[in-house]
Here is the input.
Amino acid sequence: MQLCLTIFIAFLSISCAYELGYKSKNLPGAHTQIKIPMFTNETKIIGAETYFTNELKRQFYRSKIANISDDAPVKIVGKVRRIYIDQDARGSKEDFPNLPANTVITTSYNMTIDVKIEMVRKADAKVIWQSEFSDFLLYSGAQLKLEGVNSSNTLYNQSAVQNNIQKLASIMMSEAHNRLTENF
Here is the structure.
C-alpha cells in the first residue's frame, strides 16, 4: 500500500510539473488573426520574396496559432534585404594543368540572406514586434569530368540559387515563426 501511494504521488508530481512547464504559444497581444502580405524584395534576385512569404504562411497554417485573413487586426511585413553569393574561386596552372592560363574555377558558393520582419497593428500602424534574421548556406558549383571543377552552366547555377533560397526560406521562416510566437 505504501509503495502504491508513493508511486501515485510521484506520478502526480511529474504530471503537474509537465503542466506547469508547458507554455502555450501565441502572437504578441494574443492576436488570433494575421495578415501576411507579399514580402518586399530589396535584392536583385527576382522572386526571392515569394519563398519567404509562402514559407511563413505555411508555418502558420501548420501551427494553427493564428488564422491568416485579409481583415486581421495585425499584419506581418517582411523584407528580403540582402542575398549575397560569395564564390570560392581558385585555380592555377598547377592545380589544373589542362585548363587555359589564367582560368579561375568556382568550386563552391556561400549564400547569405538577410530578412527583416515586423508585426504591425493595423489600427495605428504601430510596430508591435520586429526582428532581423540572417543565415547562410554553402553549395557546390556544377561539376564537370574533373572533380572540383565546375562548368559555366548558368542554368545550373540559377537553379541552384533558387533551390538554396527556398531552403534558407524554410529554415529562416521556421525560426521567425518560433520567435514571433514565444513568450507572449
